[in-house]
């Protein structure tokens, strides 16, 4: 094993967190802001890049951090190292309601492709890089652009999905059509492209976007029911204009405020 071999347990239902058990001198790396709690004798260090140690030169570290910047993430990650004598635990929490998925890269052929904001944490030694799309249509209309995250190595990685998580195992040649924002990740064998929805009524009135993703097997695909973009859109849509709360279920709006005794006038 090149990556540290860690034990873990996932707790909760809707707002999950993962508790990772570290032997002495074992470490885990995580995105900034995902830390929840830890035992004593765990040392926290901010590192440049992903800490995979594939290239310890200055240029190698700069390139590793630059790859993360292309995916929209910070140049830095946080490493948690057990410097004590016995086993210690550190926990990381979901950023919003959903599920935490444990990915054993040694069982995935050493590589897993995921959304650029899905990665939560991983055993130190796992490389967090970028996956470029070679297809122009996918890059322009796929929702995730030309770049997705690529997890490489032989250790445990943890990613987060919004809402309920669905796992689909595709046979060779089998195609699954998915909303572009609902893709969490897939194994390296899966072929990913985008397809035009088609039809004037579907395009203008469908409300589901102009394109959906096509995932062709063989391989395994993970789908989320609540992408963060969809959650954020619903929250923004519910914010009252002008900053005044009209109350849930209000039909009359401003007229209701006047009848109800609003004395602003």
TrEMBL record:
Its domain of life?
Bacteria
Tell me where the signal peptide lies.
Answer: none
Per its UniProt record, what InterPro entries does this chain match?
AIM24, AIM24_sf, Trp_RNA-bd_attenuator-like_dom
Report TM segments. none
- Record PANTHER family: ALTERED INHERITANCE OF MITOCHONDRIA PROTEIN 24, MITOCHONDRIAL, TRYPTOPHAN RNA-BINDING ATTENUATOR PROTEIN-LIKE PROTEIN
This one is known as Uncharacterized protein (TIGR00266 family)
Q: In which organism is this protein found?
A: Maribacter caenipelagi
């Amino acid at each position: 094993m090149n990556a540290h071999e860690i034990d873990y347990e996932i707790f909760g239902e809707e707002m999950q967190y993962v508790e990772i058990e570290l032997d002495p001198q074992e470490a885990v790396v995580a995105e900034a802001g995902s830390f929840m709690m830890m035992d004593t004798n765990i040392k926290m260090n901010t590192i440049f890049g992903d800490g995979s140690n594939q290239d310890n030169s200055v240029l190698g570290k700069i390139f590793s951090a630059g790859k993360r910047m292309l995916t929209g993430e910070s140049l830095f990650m946080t490493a948690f190292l057990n410097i004590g004598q016995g086993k210690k635990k550190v926990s990381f929490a979901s950023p919003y309601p959903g599920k935490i998925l444990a990915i054993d890269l040694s069982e995935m052929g050493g590589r897993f492709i995921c959304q650029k904001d899905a990665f939560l944490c991983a055993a130190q030694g796992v490389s967090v890089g970028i996956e470029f799309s070679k297809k122009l249509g996918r890059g322009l209309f796929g929702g995730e652009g030309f770049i997705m995250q690529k997890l490489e190595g032989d250790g445990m990685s943890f990613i987060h999905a919004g809402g309920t998580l669905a796992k689909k195992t595709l046979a060779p040649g089998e195609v699954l059509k998915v909303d572009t924002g609902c893709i969490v990740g897939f194994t390296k064998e899966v072929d990913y492209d985008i397809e035009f929805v088609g039809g004037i009524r579907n395009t203008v009135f469908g409300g589901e976007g102009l394109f959906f993703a096509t995932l062709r097997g063989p391989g395994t695909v993970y789908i989320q029911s609540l992408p963060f973009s969809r959650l954020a859109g619903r929250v923004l849509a519910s914010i009252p204009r002008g900053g005044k709360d009209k109350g849930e279920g209000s039909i009359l709006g401003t007229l209701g405020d006047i009848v109800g005794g609003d004395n602003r006038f």
